Amino acid sequence: MNKAVFLDRDGVINRKGGSYYIWRIEDFILNEGVIDALKIFQEKGYLLIVITNQGGIARGVFSEEDLKRLNEYMIDLLKQHGIKLSAIYYCPHHPDVSLCECRKPGTLLFEKAIKDFDIDVKSSCMIGDSEVDIEAAKKMEIKGILIPVNGNLVDLVVRTGLIS
Ligand SMILES: [Mg+2]
Ligand SMILES: [Zn+2]
Fold first, then answer.
1. Which element (helix H / strand E) includes 50?
2. Does this model's pTM top 0.85?
3. Model confidence over 18-68: pLDDT tens digits?
């Protein structure tokens, strides 16, 4: 089995700012400490898996193609720093439009990732900046780590003792 660090995207990996939805490449700015933190997780043998709510698709703010383009950009950007994302799972739905089981705090995307990558939940964790991230993780018996929006991940992982 594998262990994983599940990561929320907006506010964790990249800067969440004034505009609610981030889908343009020029709006995608990595948060401080992200590269170093992800490298440390990777060196410790964790798979890196992003689980993100992208309800702007259902609301017609941006398209699934736009998201796929941004995903590719994020994967390439991290790759340039020697970081491999195993997968990005996203929920394109929004409760204003339709209900689903994949939008966090729903657990469908976690269930999928756990199955796809044979994840041992007990040795994994979820890092998020929203209660829904932690709530979803909790349902899956994954340790949830709530960070401040745009918090420095390196500071955080040292402080929580996730790394020695
Ligand atoms: Mg977030
Ligand atoms: Zn969904």
1. strand 46-53
2. yes
3. 767 999 999 999 999 999 999 999 999 999 999 999 999 999 999 999 999
Tell me, which fold does domain 3-118+132-148 have in CATH? Answer: Rossmann fold (3.40.50)
CA 82–ligand 2 middle distance (angstroms): 31
Q: Do the Cβ atoms of 81 and 35 come closer than 8 Å?
A: yes
- DSSP class of residue 30 equals B
Q: Where are the domains of the chain?
A: 3-118+132-148
Tell me which ligand sits closest to the C-alpha of residue 7: 1
Neighbours of ion ligand 1 (CB under 5 A): 8, 10-11, 129-130
| CA–CA gap between residue 102 and residue 59 (Å, rounded) | 16
- Establish whether 36 is a catalytic residue: no
